[in-house]
Amino acid sequence: MRKTVGKIAIALLLSLHLFLPGSWLFSQSAAANRPELDHTTVFVRDLPKSVEFYEKVVGLERIPDPFKDGRHIWFRSGAHQQLHAVGGATEAARHDIDVHSAFRVASLPDFMTHLDQMQVKYRNFKGDGKISARPDGVRQIYFQDPDGYWIEVNDDKY
Q1: Beta-carbon count within 10 A of 66 CB
Q2: pLDDT tens digit string along 29-88?
Q3: What ranges do the domains of the chain cover?
């Protein structure tokens, strides 16, 4: 009887040894293959005007783009994220505030002062004030780029 129990125990351990690494590897590869935001694109009418806006108003850094066709301009918008401005739009599209790009800053009051100096109008989400707070306490403002795309800037600490 003891030999039978021992053999069963060994068989169970071997079974676990055979199946566990596969499931462990699968869970690791699934996590490694989880999508991350790479870039966002805005389709614009006046590319130089949009470039100036995203550099001077938003404060994004321009980075090399692989197209080099005069129609694409790329900006760094995070550690591994980008904003692509693509010229060629012929008319302004209506953009709802619910569809927006959001950026985080260390000091929202300092950023608001910068917008005031640049004479860029901003508002809260509802449009009935300058600043709003989410239920989690993160404060936020909204404004639009030259083509009407909405931009949120907040003080989330992430």
Answers
A1: 7
A2: 778 899 999 999 999 999 999 999 999 999 999 999 999 999 999 999 999 999 999 999
A3: 1-34, 39-154
Beta strands in the chain (DSSP E): 39-44, 61-63, 72-76, 82-87, 100-104, 132-133, 139-144, 150-154
Chain centre to alpha carbon of residue 22: 33
**The whole model's pTM is what?**
0.80
Q: Residue 101, SS3? A: strand
CATH topology of domain 39-154: 2,3-Dihydroxybiphenyl 1,2-Dioxygenase; domain 1 (3.10.180)
* Cα gap 5→11, rounded to integer Å: 10
Strand partners, 63: 74
33-44: pLDDT as tens digits:
999 999 999 999
Side chain identity, residue 115? L
Q: What is the DSSP letter of 90?
A: -
For residue 26, give the amino acid letter: F
List the one residue out of 57, 52, 56 whose CA is nearest residue 73: 52
